[in-house]
Design brief:
Elements: E1 2-6, H1 10-21, E2 25-29, H2 37-42, E3 45-46, E4 58-61, H3 66-73, H4 79-82, E5 88-91, H5 97-109, E6 113-116, E7 119-120, H6 123-128, E8 131-136, H7 139-152, E9 153-160, H8 164-193, H9 198-206, H10 213-224, H11 234-251, H12 256-270, H13 284-288
Parallel strand pairs: 1-2, 1-4, 2-3, 4-5, 5-6, 8-9
Antiparallel strand pairs: 7-8
Helix pairs in contact: 5-8, 8-10, 8-11, 8-12, 9-10, 11-12
Length: 294
């Protein structure tokens, strides 16, 4: 396929690299100059403007938030103004349900197609092509985009023909991950202050009832206090909890744990956590227990 890829952060760079490895023709764009150098060496074309990455079958966005996505979609020489009729905008960004709905409507009005395809996985998984893709959109558009999914992920879950459903699923998943991080941090603070070795405790947990990757990955980061460099920065975690609460309010679904997590993230950021991985949320319980330096 001829693919434009917009957004070359730690996730996007790995995804674009795997598209090239799979043999696709890739044009890359990033707002910060220089981030495309390695990809250009691999065979990608560098775009000076967003529009230059929109002349193929698919334009993919992998950006931090709603504001970043809107900045490359709307306006002169942007995605909406540049994609051909019938071409597809695939959004792999974790954005609000409301914006996903707006994008679907606006692309349809322009004769284009929109597929929401957020992903689960950290930067290491993106680099290895081992992401899990959650896709939603009109069935023919999803089928057309499948080679992209196959290049970046190990499995694709098609959840709906309504694109915003994929974003709701993604936000709900990130809410669950944050819940695990918080509860793990609390449990580790409890046993640690009680004199139990945290590494031994985590090994016991993940060797028995809690063997899922989320417990192993985030438990290890919390125990080792390995919060830098951030694979997924704490402000993005806070953003996702805010978005899941907005979606819940729209649907009138109470999420009391999400409300707690919102305040926990604000506490982390208020204490200088902006540059930390969101797993640093799991360090707050130890700090509250007077164990932060141990």
């Amino acid at each position: 396929m001829n693919v434009g890829f917009i957004g070359l952060g730690r996730m996007g760079a790995g995804m674009a690299a795997n598209l090239l490895k799979a043999g696709h023709d890739v044009t890359v764009y990033n707002r910060t100059p220089g981030k495309d150098e390695e990809l250009v060496q691999m065979g990608a074309r560098s775009a000076a403007e967003v529009a230059e990455a929109c002349d193929g079958e698919i334009a993919v966005t992998m950006l931090a938030d709603d504001h970043a996505v809107k900045s490359v979609v709307y306006g002169d020489q942007r995605i909406l103004a540049s994609l051909a009729k019938g071409a597809i905008h695939v959004s792999s960004s974790t954005i609000s349900v409301a914006l996903a709905g707006r994008l679907a409507a606006d692309h349809a009005a322009a004769g284009q197609r929109f597929v929401a395809a957020p992903v689960f996985g950290r930067p290491e998984a993106a680099a290895d092509g081992k992401l899990f893709v959650v896709a939603a959109g009109e069935s023919e558009a999803v089928t057309t985009a499948t080679p992209f999914f196959d290049a970046v992920g190990q499995k694709t879950f098609v959840v709906s023909e309504t694109p915003k459903a994929a974003n709701l699923v993604k936000l709900s998943g990130n809410f669950l991950i944050a819940s695990v991080i918080e509860s793990l941090g609390e449990a580790l603070a409890l046993v640690g202050k009680g004199g139990v070795d945290r590494h031994q405790y985590l090994d016991m947990l993940t060797s028995t009832l809690f063997g899922a990757p989320v417990y192993k990955t985030y438990g290890g980061l919390i125990v080792d206090r390995k919060f830098e460099p951030a694979g997924f920065a704490a402000p993005l975690g806070q953003k996702d909890i805010r978005l899941v609460l907005a979606a819940a309010e729209e649907l009138r679904v109470p999420l009391p744990i999400a409300s707690l997590l919102r305040d926990r993230f604000l506490s982390l950021l208020a204490h200088g956590g902006d540059n930390l991985d969101w797993s640093a949320l799991g360090s707050l319980a130890a700090r509250d227990a007077g164990e932060a330096a141990k």
